[in-house]
Amino acid sequence: MKIAVVGSYGAGLTMRVPKAPAAGETVSGGTFAPGPGGKGSNQAVAAARLGAEVALLTAVGDDDFGRAAHELWRAEGVDASRVLTAGAPTMVGFILVEPSGENRIAIAPGALDELDAAAVEGFRAEIAAADIVIVSMEIPEDAVVAALRAGRESGTRTLLNPAPARPLPDACWPLIDVITPNQTEAPVLLGLDAEHRLDDEELVSALRERTGGVALLTRGGQGALVAEASGVTAVPPLRARSVVDTTGAGDSFTAALAVALAEGRPVAEAAGFAAAAGAHTVSVAGVIPALPTRDQLNARIGNAS
């Protein structure tokens, strides 16, 4: 089972605060912890922990953050031989986490701005060898399109995690086999304004019509909706024991979904497996510590059944 990932790496500078500050307000009493992050790297590590053979394409700077990234990938068994060393600094994300687990994130892309279509071309062999390629959108648009096109031309299943959401170019839509937005991202992708009146089933159906493939709409505590040619299926939520930190939950979900699809599971079953991964992740503080191993996830699914 092989998975290729094209996405971001960044240093996550996390502060847990009593409450998020309002404009002009200073909030004291926080605790600080730096750590690795970035959607692509998180997804690669998560997939590797679930038993996949993973190759990653991202970009880092020639700095301490970039060197720490390579140490992480070596430790987790992720093939980072194609990762680009850029002239700009490694991406940094500043993350504020409230006691409820909700988070607010600001990002300085840095090296990721140098991840272009030419870099993706150098990763084409890894995409062709994979069962599925995961692409996320913290990277330049031309790299997103190039990665999806390389998957399509290689016959590799493509999975777009459209976060952070932005309107997609028309050329993207027919290259997507599986798309996985949440309720906030879906209207942005479809170019709808805030006053749109589509319900969740109509949103996920509209996304499926755009791609001609599979659309999966995540809905937090409401579970997920899966739209296929045969219709829309509801995937029930798997409750977390407690919500400690929601950072990284979407990446854990995406990686587990890709692993399950690469194993040949039906989409709705794969979404249930992914929901279990997300529920595990929100119950543990930090991103990398919260990504489950296969044994942890199997135990959670067994306990929930």
Tell me about this structure.
The model has no long low-confidence stretch (mean pLDDT about 90). α8 packs antiparallel against α9 (about 265-280). The two termini are about 25 Å apart. The strands form 3 sheets. Strands 4-1-9-10-11-12-13-14 form an 8-stranded mixed β-sheet, with helices on both faces. The protein has a 4-stranded mixed β-sheet with strand order 3-2-7-8. It has a two-stranded parallel ribbon with strand order 5-6. It has 10 helices and 14 strands. Helix content is about 35%, strand content about 25%. The radius of gyration is 18 Å and the shape is globular. α2 (about 65-75) links the parallel β5 and β6 (about 85). With about 300 residues, the chain is of the alpha/beta class.
Mean pLDDT: 92
What's the order of the H and E elements?
A: EEEHEEHEEEHHEHEEHHEEEHHH
Query: Quick one: biggest sheet?
Result: 8 strands, mixed
| Strand residue percentage | 15-25%
Distance between the termini: 26 Å
| Secondary-structure class | alpha/beta
- Which parts are unreliable, with pLDDT below 50 for 5 consecutive residues or more? none
- The count of β-strands is 14
Instruction: Give the CA-based shape.
Output: globular
Strand order of the largest sheet: 4-1-9-10-11-12-13-14
Percent helix range? 25-40%
Number of helices: 10
C-alpha-based Rg, rounded: 18 Å
